[in-house]
Amino acid sequence: MTTETQTGGPSPDWSEVYDSPEFQRLRSRFRRFVFPMTALFLAWYALYVLLADYAHGFMSHKVGGNITVGLIFGLLQFLSTFVITGLYVWYADRKLDPAAEAIRAELEGEQQ
Hints:
- The protein is built from five helices and two strands.
- It has helices at 3-7, 14-19, 21-54, 56-59, 69-111; strands at 62-64, 67-68.
- Helix 3 (21-54) packs antiparallel against helix 5.
């Protein structure tokens, strides 16, 4: 099913949408969050892997019962994933979604 069939009008010129300042601002906002957060998470994960491989004594240090530093770091990997997801949802709700909705409303308004 094409856009023309769904809306009853011609589909927008996507190259114009892509080149528009509003869409480029939206992409910039998205990248401003995603790229640094990705780099931060990959660095955190690399630290975990390097410590697990080269710092056996540190990672196997028991902090209580059978709980080791390595286990805590491993669980923190999961926690950091949930935190990053929550931060992204918060950021998207405030910065990305309103801009995307404005672009969508403008496109749908032109078609009617």
